TrEMBL record:
Its main location: cytoplasm. HAMAP family: Adenylate_kinase_Adk. Pathway: Purine metabolism; AMP biosynthesis via salvage pathway; AMP from ADP: step 1/1. ATP binds at G10, A11, G12, K13, G14, T15, R118, Q186. This is Adenylate kinase. It comes from Halomarina oriensis.
Length: 203
């Protein structure tokens, strides 16, 4: 299947993408991870870091290029973090069809809690949370890091950027009959249950 996961920062796009990949064996196309791995790369628009650390969108040509290269060798895929504005959505439209657009709906308060408490294991990429989900092994606990853009001020800016630039895409995909709205505030297993049903339905 060709799946697009859409939702605000912290909605669980990365968490659910993992399960989609395990279940359907599709490609995980995530502009956020790709950019984080190349934060200091020089582009015609400067380094990705200059935008990401402020919670701003990296310019369209940079992200479009990442996506078009990834789509080339993908049969099925889950897109996570792209498109994020109308012009990216139109660009994607020229590149491929989609089977389903799943929206992970989560309220602002819960997003702030998830993001400011998130810690990442730099060795495995695994996500943890200071209050809800810390690793039992001291060795892992000691090496956890906070993402540069998970501080309270930057989180607020990321959420505003989502409201302004990305939210309009919901209607765009709804008008095309592709949208499935999911309650993303449930526990991860329950979100996955609903998401899987929506994917099966769309095929
Ligand atoms: P990106 O990496 O895409 O970040 P994001 O959209 O802000 O989303 P996150 O990765 O923070 O959240 P997520 O939805 O994946 O949630 P997760 O599963 O991790 O983008 C980062 C930056 O890159 C952007 O700000 C921008 O600068 C740039 N960029 C990226 N794409 C771009 C594009 N297309 N155009 C321009 N610029 C672009 O979960 C979050 C936390 O919650 C975790 O701790 C997790 O364990 C926990 N959690 C997950 N699900 C649940 C649940 N159901 N219940 C409780 N906790 C949960
Ligand atoms: Zn993510």
């Amino acid at each position: 299947p060709r799946i697009l996961l859409i939702g605000p920062p912290g909605a669980g796009k990365g968490t659910q993408s993992k399960r989609i990949v395990e279940t359907y064996g599709v490609e995980h196309i995530t502009t956020g991870d790709a950019l984080r791995a190349n934060k200091d790369m020089e582009t015609d628009y400067g380094k990705p870091r200059e935008y990401m650390d402020k919670g701003e969108l990296v310019p369209d040509p940079v992200v479009n290029e990442i996506v078009v290269a990834a789509l080339e060798d993908a049969d099925g895929f889950v897109l996570d973090g792209y498109p994020r504005n109308m012009s990216q959505a139109e660009y994607l439209d020229e590149q491929t069809d989609l089977d389903i657009v799943a929206l992970l709906d989560v309220g602002r308060e819960e997003l702030v809690t998830r993001l400011t408490g998130r810690r990442v294991d730099p060795e495995t990429g695994e996500n943890y949370h200071v209050e809800y989900d810390m690793p039992a092994e001291e060795e892992i606990r000691d090496r956890l890091e906070q993402r540069d853009d998970d501080t309270e001020e930057v989180v607020k800016d990321r959420l505003d950027v989502y409201d302004e630039n990305t939210k309009p895409l919901i209607e765009f995909y709804e008008d095309r009959g592709l949208l499935a709205r999911l309650d993303g505030e449930q526990a991860p297993d329950d979100v996955w249950h609903d998401l899987r049903l929506a994917i099966e339905d769309a095929q």
